[in-house]
Amino acid sequence: MGLRRIIVLLIAVIAAGGTAMYARSWIEGQQTPVAIAAPAPQEARHEVLVADLQLPAGSFVKPQHLRWQRWPTDDVPETYVLRGVRSEEEIVGAVVRRGIGTGEPITDGAVVKPGDRGFLAAVLSPGMRAVSVPITATSGNSGLIFPGDRVDLILTQTLLPDAGQGSTRMVSETVLKNIRIIAMGSETGEDTEEGGNNEKAKTATLEVTPSQAESVTLVTELGKLSLSLRSLAADEEAEGAVPVAAESFTWDRDVSRVLRTGRLSSRLLVLRGSNIEDVQVQQGSN
């Protein structure tokens, strides 16, 4: 009886083990393997050059006006400035042909570069004209006036006496005020670091109205012209060239005490036989 009981127990254990193995195999067969999704590939992007602030037409492009912005690869036209292909130095110093909004990409058609056809015309404000006047190192403030600065135009002329009556007079007058300089010689950029040739410039190109262009052309034939640099603070208060009051002039006697008093002295040698006498002669005003 004891042996039979042991055999029954062994059979029960073996059956239980087989049942467990079968159940485990069945459960594993019912489980669906979970696929691990691979991370989606990131869309490749490039950077294009855009305006960091609003740029009006006629303004010079400076480094602080530009920034790089990420842009989808399939949305980059050939006219855009693509980082790694072109540099922002190509655009710095150019003139905005039409207004560019903040964040708007810089395109080849939106700016005109120095040396390109139509560059000077793009610098001019609508309705204005460009006229050049001769200058020297002294009359041009020793090369310290740059394109974009505003100046007053001063004429100094010598007035000869009529029919030998009176004396020769000199007078200086301001003929135009608050005029924008658009070029010094061939220099047209506003960057002060690029103005190395300003001191050698023999002409200054001014932005004026059509009637003022006629006046400037005339005064270049009357005498010597000088440029008087204006303060930037003053220019913010009054944009554009303004008329000059009729009394805005200075005579030679206004700045010279000798001419104003008319007390001119000269030395005269008087010959009397073999004697030579040095005589002081006081001259009155004419």
Task: Write out key terms for the chains shown.
2 domains, alpha+beta, Type Iii Antifreeze Protein Isoform Hplc 12, rod-shaped, 286 residues, six-stranded antiparallel β-sheet
SSE topology sketch:
Blueprint: H1 2-30, E1 45-51, E2 66-72, E3 95-96, E4 111-112, H2 119-123, E5 129-134, E6 150-159, E7 169-184, E8 203-208, H3 210-219, E9 224-229, H4 232-237, E10 249-251, H5 252-255, H6 257-261, E11 264-272, E12 275-283
Antiparallel strand pairs: 1-2, 3-4, 5-8, 6-7, 6-9, 7-8, 7-10, 11-12
Overview of the structural elements:
- With 286 residues, the chain is α+β, with helices and mostly antiparallel strands.
- It folds into two domains: 45-121, Type Iii Antifreeze Protein Isoform Hplc 12 (Alpha-Beta Complex); 125-254, no CATH class.
- It has helices at residues 2-30, 119-123, 210-219, 232-237, 252-255, 257-261, and strands at residues 45-51, 66-72, 95-96, 111-112, 129-134, 150-159, 169-184, 203-208, 224-229, 249-251, 264-272, 275-283.
- The strands form four sheets. Strands 5, 6, 7, 8, 9 and 10 form a six-stranded antiparallel beta sheet that branches.
- Strand 11 and strand 12 (275-283) form a beta hairpin.
- It starts with a helix and ends with a strand.
